[in-house]
Design a protein that fits this description.
Chain lengths: 313, 385
């Protein structure tokens, strides 16, 4: 009977490598973690840093050449009326879209989470997700046609003699346009349509997590339906609402395609960045514009965190 | 045609930093087997989009040079690709071509090696966007005007002036033009306003719509602010503009023959004209990279671009004009005298071709408003400022 050694001799490079990993687990960890960390650090944070750096440069008024000296001049340019308009317009639109999405999404999410059963539940999920599966551009172009002067809404209004409603809406100061598709109102409607699923899904997830026992307890203790809603359901679902609002708010803040196709061509932050960088060569101002949504979102996320939006992560 | 949207940076002092004349190719040797071209989408077709439009496969068979195309959507992209290298040719627009010359990215062309050079439109042979100090840096490819497109049901007679898109007025159908006209949303549209003023306000002394001093520039912006009141939406994408003419009740706008031809083909009551003030336009040039790896095939392609059905068929495909006028009439392709007239061939003299506004212009060092300011101010105008 021959005895075999306790440690078998290494049979090849693979064995030796396995042994190395076994003896020094940190080596394996380092090998596995380095590529994603490099990606995050160099590609993502690196480009962000480059962006930030550019925004502190300025463009020479005379020659149009970028001066690589640190200055706050470019940020001051953001406060020029025409540029400040763009910031204000974008933030107001993002806020309005978020509020409208929240108001529209809550009943849908509530029904889907608490009342829909079986097939209906699947149908709800499908109904909410379905628009996400088709191309964003196709949806926006479709809306352009729907909202056009000679589109279906205009046609239906004419047939039912209700054109005065649309005309009335289009004469509100700030909403002017020759049709819904050329009015900021149209931009708003399309934004709400496009981002609504991103609001419904997190809301639904948070509403589903509200335990039934709590609602029963609330009823046992004599709370009316309204009271239960205000004091139990809403606070428990709030993190979902805030998570959804982060999506709708930041997506609206950064979008530059919808306002280009629908609306009166007035610039949003994304459009301004697009125009200022490539062709004009005004990279510093483009970078400064791009920093604004980052700052706004940081503030927004800080508030969201305080309200507990990330507690369920 | 997307390049029309985007004009180049003003950062290069084009007027000054001219490159020394580099060595030219003196004879065409054996073809290398391939040629790499940076081109606008739709510019180099091999019958894959539409069988009828093919100006590559015959060239490949005859020359033995495989044509590799890299499409670019903006002039900036083109300049960037040429800076990277690895390409032999580029179809550069007027705003990119001088940047490429100033940056030493392209080499002089020996026109003696291109037999069909003599057939090129005389007015394009020495065009300033590819000829510097008498040296040719490319072969003209295609050009086209920015026309005034209008609805023939509203305008029984073609409008004679651009005022239909600049001044509030009652159109022939009895309704105001407010909300029924459009304008291009690229800052280069400032030049259209300047050209209008050049005709109607000679006291401003504008000599070129691309070279505006502060006063002239301010007058142009004021005119554009007035236009903002009339314009419900600015156009950016050719297909969106076509849709606006169909569904949005838009009846007049600056446009390209491309949209006019497509809308006409759909049977819509659309026509175009070049009003009395003239029009702006674009002109592209085939240029050769300074380190082109396949110079022989590149030269063969440049000859092919002038001599073959390319000029005629591309003219039809793109709604542009051939740089070789004979292509309209000699039956080498689908173009006819009528199709070329429709694309604006006869209006060459009325067109001021797009160039990038720079601060050092013919009015003096730093006398003109550079392009980056056109961009920020035009953003303001569209935003209602």
């Amino acid at each position: 009977m021959s005895s075999s050694p306790a440690i078998l001799p290494a049979k090849g490079p693979a064995d030796r490598l396995t042994a190395l990993f076994w003896r020094h687990p940190r080596v394996l960890l380092a090998i596995l973690l380095t590529p994603p960390l490099l990606w995050l650090g160099v590609v993502y944070l690196g480009s962000l840093a480059a962006l930030l750096l550019q925004s502190f440069y300025s463009i020479d008024e005379f020659s149009g050449v970028v001066k690589e000296e640190f200055t706050l001049k470019t940020y001051a340019e953001l406060l020029r009326p025409s540029n400040f308009d763009i910031l204000l317009r974008t933030v107001l639109m993002a806020a309005a879209v978020t509020l409208a999405c929240a108001a529209l999404a809550f009943p849908i999410a509530y029904y889907a989470a608490r009342y829909a059963k079986g097939h209906w539940k699947a149908a709800f999920y499908l109904g909410v997700m379905l628009p996400l599966w088709s191309s964003y551009l196709v949806k926006v172009y479709a809306w352009k046609l729907i909202l056009a002067k000679e589109g279906i809404i205009g046609w239906a209004a004419e047939q039912t003699h209700t054109s005065w409603i649309i005309d009335g809406l289009l004469s509100i100061p700030g909403m002017e346009g020759s049709s819904l598709s050329t009015s900021p109102l149209g931009t708003f409607m399309v934004f709400v349509y496009i981002w609504l699923p991103y609001m419904i899904l997190p809301m639904q997830a948070s509403l589903e997590r509200v335990p039934n026992s709590m609602l029963e307890a609330s009823a046992d203790l004599g709370a009316s339906r309204g009271q239960t809603f205000r004091t139990v359901i809403l606070p428990l679902a709030l993190p979902g609402v805030i998570a959804g609002s982060i999506f709708t708010f930041s997506l609206t803040l950064g979008d530059y395609i919808i306002p280009q196709i629908i609306g009166n061509s007035a610039n949003f932050i994304g459009m301004a960045v697009y125009q200022l960088q490539g062709t004009a060569g005004n990279i510093p101002l483009a970078a400064a514009f791009a920093v604004v949504p980052i700052l706004i979102m940081l503030i927004y996320l800080a508030i969201a965190r305080r309200m507990g939006a990330f507690d369920a992560l | 045609m997307k390049h029309l949207r985007l004009m180049g940076t003003t950062t290069l002092a084009l007027m000054t930093g001219l490159s020394p004349v580099l060595a030219q190719v003196t004879e065409i040797g054996a073809p290398e087997g391939q040629v790499n071209i940076v081109a606008w989408p739709g510019y180099i077709e091999r019958g894959e989009t539409d069988k009828a439009f093919d100006w590559v496969t015959k060239f490949e068979a005859a020359s033995g040079c495989k044509v590799n195309v890299k499409t670019a959507n903006t002039s900036d992209e083109m300049v960037a690709l040429m800076n990277e290298g690895g390409f032999d040719l580029v179809t550069a627009s007027g705003d990119a071509s001088l940047r490429l010359v100033a940056g030493d990215r392209v080499q002089p062309i020996n026109i003696d090696l291109i037999p069909s050079w003599s057939t090129v439109d005389d007015r394009l042979k020495d065009a300033p966007w590819h000829t510097v100090d008498g040296v040719h840096y490319g072969v003209p490819y295609m050009w086209g005007p920015n026309v005034l497109m209008y609805n023939t049901e509203v305008f029984k007679e073609p409008p004679t002036s651009w005022n239909v898109v600049f001044e509030e007025m009652t159109l022939p159908d009895g309704q105001s033009n407010k909300g029924r006209v459009q304008a291009y949303d690229g800052p280069i549209h400032v030049a259209d306003a300047a050209q209008y003023l050049m005709f109607h306000k000679p006291e401003l002394g504008i000599t070129s719509p691309y070279e505006l001093n502060e006063d002239q520039y301010k007058a142009a912006l004021d005119l554009l602010r007035q236009q903002r009141e009339l314009t419900s939406r600015y156009w950016h994408d050719a297909f969106i503009q076509m849709d606006d003419f169909k569904n949005e009740g838009v009846v007049a706008s600056g446009s390209w023959p491309f949209q006019v031809n497509l809308l006409k083909a759909e049977g819509l009551p659309i026509a175009s004209t070049i009003p009395q003030e003239g029009a702006t336009g674009w002109a592209d040039t085939t240029m050769m990279h300074v380190d082109a790896a396949n110079p022989n095939c590149a030269y063969l392609w440049m000859e092919h671009s002038l001599a073959s059905n390319l000029q005629a068929d591309l003219s039809v495909w793109f709604g542009a004009n051939p740089s070789v006028p004979a292509a309209c009439t000699d039956g080498r392709g689908m173009a006819t005298a009528e199709s070329c007239t429709a694309n604006g061939l006869d209006d060459f003299e009325k067109i001021r071709f797009w160039t990038t506004p720079v601060s050092n212009c013919s009015q003096g060092e730093g006398a003109c408003v550079p392009y980056y300011r056109w961009v920020s101010d035009y953003i303001g105008v569209i935003g209602g400022r």
